[in-house]
């Protein structure tokens, strides 16, 4: 696990708590150095502060996603800063905790994120012409194999549960992004991810993954 936090007392506290809970922890206080470390080494999860020297948490998170790193990212944000939360999700964060936070809440969220990641790795599933393999981070069809991020796989799994059903943006934010109070959230992150996913799926994606204006998205294929 990788803790990126520039405040010494918070960084040390996080490392102590997570180590006590049985996790092996590395830490960094500098955004740019943390990015180099995260790209070089493999971590099960990153706890990432927003305010960092040289490279902030948003830019660091975005850079990891652009580099194809699907490691779960838990972002630490200022209390009440909703714009930070939204920007964090749009940068690729998986969950967030607001400062000041309780140790119990943070550990619970870390545990839940790791549990979801392990569950995601376990079971393959089919959606339309694609056989999705979460353990390999890919989907295969007659046209070949494509790489998918963990979040793209979660989106497909949700759509595959009931082909033809409209899945709203709010449902996706709750189930895939783990966001609370989604009724009051305005963000384009879902649309951006769907567009990227559709492009990856090629002609099949454009044919099957449709947008229902004002309602959400639907996997149009009736086959499982």
Describe this structure in words.
This protein has two domains: 2-119, Response regulator (Rossmann fold), CATH 3.40.50; 123-219, Arc Repressor Mutant, subunit A (Orthogonal Bundle). It is α/β, with parallel strands linked by helices and 224 residues long. The protein has helices spanning 8-20, 31-40, 57-66, 82-91, 103-120, 150-160, 169-175, 189-208; strands at residues 2-4, 26-28, 46-49, 73-78, 95-99, 125-127, 130-133, 138-141, 144-147, 209-212, 216-219. The strands form three sheets. A five-stranded parallel β-sheet has the order 2-1-3-4-5, with helices on both faces. Helix 2 (31-40) packs parallel to helix 3 and helix 3 (57-66) packs parallel to helix 4. The chain contains eight helices and eleven strands.
How far from one another are the termini?
Answer: 37 Å
Coarse structural class: alpha/beta
Q: Which parts are unreliable, with pLDDT below 50 for 5 consecutive residues or more? A: none
Biggest beta sheet summary: 5 strands, parallel
Looking at CATH, the homologous superfamily of the largest domain is: Response regulator
List keywords for this structure.
224 residues; alpha/beta; Rossmann fold; Arc Repressor Mutant, subunit A; 2 domains; five-stranded parallel beta sheet; four-stranded antiparallel beta sheet; 11 strands
Give a brief outline of the structure:
The chain contains eight helices and eleven strands. With 224 residues, it is an alpha/beta fold.
SSE map:
Blueprint: E1 2-4, H1 8-20, E2 26-28, H2 31-40, E3 46-49, H3 57-66, E4 73-78, H4 82-91, E5 95-99, H5 103-120, E6 125-127, E7 130-133, E8 138-141, E9 144-147, H6 150-160, H7 169-175, H8 189-208, E10 209-212, E11 216-219
Parallel strand pairs: 1-2, 1-3, 3-4, 4-5
Antiparallel strand pairs: 6-7, 7-8, 8-9, 10-11
